[in-house]
Design brief:
This protein is mainly alpha-helical. It has 16 helices and four strands. It has a domain of about 290 residues. It has a two-stranded antiparallel sheet. It has a two-stranded antiparallel sheet with strand order 3-4. A hairpin with a 2-residue loop joins β1 and β2.
Length: about 425
C-alpha cells in the first residue's frame, strides 16, 4: 500500500514535465493524474479491507458533497460542460482521503514527502540548466522586455507554482521531522541538508525567472506568517535584507510589477491592476448577475468558459476568471462555492488543532495557497498542483494526535486557569 503511495509521491512532480506526448487524447500530466488516482484508490481499498478501519471526518463530507455536486452540474449542463474540467475539480481530493487512511505515522509521512522532494530534483535541475542557457523561454514581454521562462514545464505559471510549492514543502518536511524524536533532524543529516540547500537555491532561481507574481507573493506570505508566529527576530532581519535588496533592484522590481505600480499610482486604470484582473472579475460578476436564480445556484456548467479569443461552449461570455474562488462560483454556482468554502473552513479548524510549529507551518501553507487561489488560477484549476497540495495537507488528519483528548485537556486547563 505504501509502495503505491511512494510511486505516486515520487512520480507526480516528474509528470509535470512537458514532453508533448498524448495518450488517449490526454497529455502526460492529465493521463498520469487519472492513472495515479486509480493507484491511490487501490491503496485506499487495500488499507480499509486489511485494517477494517476508516478515517472519516466532516471534511470528507464536504469533499464528497462537492464531488457529487460537480457531477450533478455536469449532467445538468451536459451540452455545455466538459468532463476534463470536472476531473480537474474533483480528482485532487482523492489524494487527501487516501493519504489520511493509508498513512498512520509521522515517519511514514516524512518518507513520502522526501520522495516527492526527490521527484522534484529532475524538473528543477533540468529547468535551471535550460534557463541558464537562455532556453526554455516562454515569451518576452513587449512593454518591459522581460524574458519569462518555463523551463521543462508547459508554461511559466506551472514552473513558478511548482517551485514555490517545493520551497514550502522543504520547510514543512524540516519542521515535521523536528517534531518527532525518532526522526533525525535535518541539521544533523549533512548530506540531505546540502541537497536541500542546492535544490532550494535552484528552485528559487527558477521561481524568479518565471516571474509568476502570484507565486512570489504566495511565498512571501508563507515565510512572513510563519516567522511572525515563531521567530520575530529573524523576521526583522529578513525584512531589513529585503528592504535593502528592494532599493538596490528597484528597477528590476518595477519591470516585474509595472502594471500594479502604475495602477496604484494612478498612471493607469485601476481595472488594469494585475494583468487586468479587476476588469476580468467585474466582467464575470456582471455575467453572473444576469443569470436566472437557478443559474446563480448551479452556475453555467463545469468547463463552460472562454478565453478572450474563443467563445464559450454554451455561447455565453464567461471568461477565465483568474480567480479560483470566482471560477468555482461561475461554474458550479453559489451552492458549489458554499460547499467549497465550508470545506476550507473545516480544514482551517483542523489545522488549528495541531501543536507548536506544525500548526503554524500548515496555517502558513493554507493562507498562502488560498491567497494564490484568490488572485489566480492556482490549486483548484491546476489539478496537478491540487493533487500534491492535498496529499501534503492530509497530515492534519493523520491519527497522530488524539484531538478529542487534546481538546478535553485544553478545556480542563482553561477551567483550572479560571
Amino acid at each position: 500500500m505504501t509502495f503505491l503511495l511512494s510511486l505516486f509521491f515520487f512520480l507526480r512532480p516528474i509528470m509535470f514535465i512537458d514532453i508533448g506526448w498524448l495518450i488517449f487524447g490526454l497529455n502526460i500530466t492529465e493521463f498520469f493524474a487519472v492513472f495515479a488516482t486509480f493507484i491511490l484508490i487501490g491503496a485506499f481499498v487495500l488499507r480499509v479491507v486489511i485494517s477494517k478501519k476508516l478515517n472519516i471526518s466532516v471534511i470528507d463530507f464536504f469533499i464528497m458533497f462537492f464531488i457529487v455536486w460537480c457531477f450533478f452540474i455536469f449532467v445538468l449542463y451536459i451540452d455545455k460542460s466538459n468532463i476534463k474540467d470536472v476531473a480537474k475539480f474533483t480528482i485532487p481530493f482523492f489524494t487527501y482521503i487516501v493519504m489520511k487512511n493509508v498513512i498512520t505515522q509521522r515517519k511514514q509521512y516524512t518518507r513520502l514527502v522526501l520522495l516527492m522532494i526527490y521527484g522534484f530534483f529532475i524538473p528543477v535541475c533540468a529547468s535551471a540548466v535550460l534557463i541558464s542557457q537562455g532556453l526554455g523561454l516562454d515569451k518576452v514581454l513587449y512593454w518591459t522586455g522581460l524574458h519569462r521562462y518555463q523551463g521543462v514545464y508547459v508554461n511559466p505559471h506551472n514552473l513558478g507554482h511548482c517551485m514555490a510549492f517545493l520551497l514550502m514543502l522543504m520547510v514543512i518536511y524540516t519542521i515535521v521531522c523536528s517534531m518527532d524524536p525518532t526522526i533525525k533532524p535535518l541539521r544533523q543529516r549533512k548530506t540531505l541538508f546540502l541537497f536541500f540547500l542546492v535544490l532550494g537555491t535552484l528552485a528559487l532561481y527558477c521561481l524568479y525567472k518565471s516571474y509568476v507574481r502570484t507565486s512570489l507573493i504566495g511565498m512571501f506570505i508563507f515565510v512572513y506568517y510563519y516567522l511572525f508566529k515563531k521567530n520575530k527576530r529573524l523576521l526583522i532581519v529578513l525584512t531589513g535584507i529585503l528592504g535593502i535588496l528592494g532599493m538596490v533592484f528597484a528597477a528590476i522590481l518595477y519591470t516585474i510589477f509595472f502594471d500594479m505600480v502604475d495602477s496604484a499610482k494612478g498612471r493607469d486604470k485601476a481595472e488594469n491592476f494585475g494583468s487586468g484582473r479587476p476588469y476580468i472579475w467585474k466582467h464575470n460578476l456582471n455575467e453572473f448577475s444576469k443569470l436566472p436564480l437557478d443559474g446563480m445556484l448551479a452556475g453555467v456548467g463545469v468547463g463552460n468558459r472562454r478565453t478572450h479569443e474563443s467563445k464559450s461552449v454554451g455561447g455565453g461570455d464567461v471568461w477565465n476568471s483568474h480567480n479560483d474562488f470566482l471560477e468555482v462560483m461561475m461554474q458550479t454556482g453559489i451552492v458549489g462555492l458554499l460547499i467549497y468554502l465550508g470545506m476550507q473552513i473545516c480544514i482551517f479548524r483542523k489545522i488549528r488543532q495541531l501543536e507548536g510549529k506544525e500548526k503554524y507551518v500548515f496555517l502558513a501553507l493554507f493562507l498562502a495557497v488560498n491567497f494564490m487561489n484568490f488572485v489566480s488560477n492556482s490549486y483548484i484549476t491546476r489539478f496537478g498542483l491540487g493533487q500534491i497540495y492535498y496529499a501534503v495537507l492530509a497530515y492534519i488528519e493523520l491519527p497522530i494526535y488524539d484531538y478529542k483528548k487534546d481538546s478535553d485537556k485544553s478545556e480542563a486547563q482553561e477551567f483550572n486557569d479560571y
